[in-house]
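User: My collaborator sent over this chain with a note saying "see what the structure looks like." That's all I know about it. Can you take a look?
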Amino acid sequence: MLERGFTKTEETRRARRPLVQPLFVPLRPLRDFVICRVATLVFLVHAIAAQTIVQNPSAVVLFRDGVAAQQQGALERAADAYRRAIEAEPRYAEAHANLGAVLVRLGQYEEAVACYERALRINPQLNAARLNLGLAHYRAGALGAAVEAFRAAYAADPSLLQARQLLGLALVETGRHAEAIPHLEAAAQAAPDEPAVLFALGRAYARSGDRRADAVAERLAHTREGLPLWHQLRGFALQQENRHEQALAAFEAASALTDNLPRLFVNVGVSRLALGDHTGARRAFEIALARSERDAAAHVYLAWLDEQDDRLPDARRHAERAVTLEGDVAESRGLLGRILLKEGSTAAAAGHLERAVSAEPQNASWRFLLGQAYQRLGNAAAADREFAEARRLKEEEVLRERRRKGGS
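Assistant: Without extra context I'll predict from the sequence alone. Here is the result:
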């Protein structure tokens, strides 16, 4: 039974409304570059200072062996040397930190996170390790944890441009555009020709309805390697204006210049979806996954398409993968909760919807679905609370829309 204030037609319309534009994943070369710079900083500082900090001479020798191996790209050998240094000197914070850097390069993100956390427990002053911790979370898709690590690194050293740059990028990915803008503006001022920063800043402006996105796009067009991103950003701006045919033309122009743009095929799929071309949209999202299975946005959109086609097992599989990659991003949690609710897995659905509401408390749809889950679980008081809040948020949304159109 539907709560008063939400008709069946209205709920169906909301359920079939395309999801919001996916969040931008910055260029991989930027992340790799920053990882290398941070890791090198740890080598340079502590290869010199370790003799006065570490009591066990063999641990220092092993640490230096690890540094040399890592600089040569011999990652497995470096990891072995750092582990042996830690065995000889368990409180060797720099060895824990450098082992984490190696494990990130090897794709072993969970173990890398544990290494960085141990290093920081031993020596909280290792801010480079704190920044690398954020990068490990970031690559693993734990965006909320990445934001907190970057924020802590920036608080520890406000002059560290890398921390502010990465904090801004991570905030954009979690949809916190207004919060990201000051950090990205500062990063763009310090590095005016960095395409990834300009692209993220342009996306944040566009999502905030800020016309400065156009000026950023022009800057991007005149940077080295920035022209393809300019076309992509222009396409995104056209999407925001619901000019999807023109957006597709811009994406095609971007693709003609390079085939290595972040989430280009997801952008194409969004416009295809908005134009009602579900077959073309699905094809674009599947291409995106073929290029990178870790593309959470592609999983989210395929989950949505499968849900609309009543292919619930496939929808659940994609939504679960998106949650694994993104953690507590509201869109992924809410979508998985809705799918589980349809499948009758009410308790599991409630858990995901609770986390969606926690991440995005102003979303009326997630609250309404959470109310339905509570209602089915027999928790009438909680259901009434969520239905009332969903109704209040919906009424506010209607009023804002009326004001925007010049109404009362």
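A starting point for your reply to your collaborator: The two ends are 33 Å apart (CA to CA).
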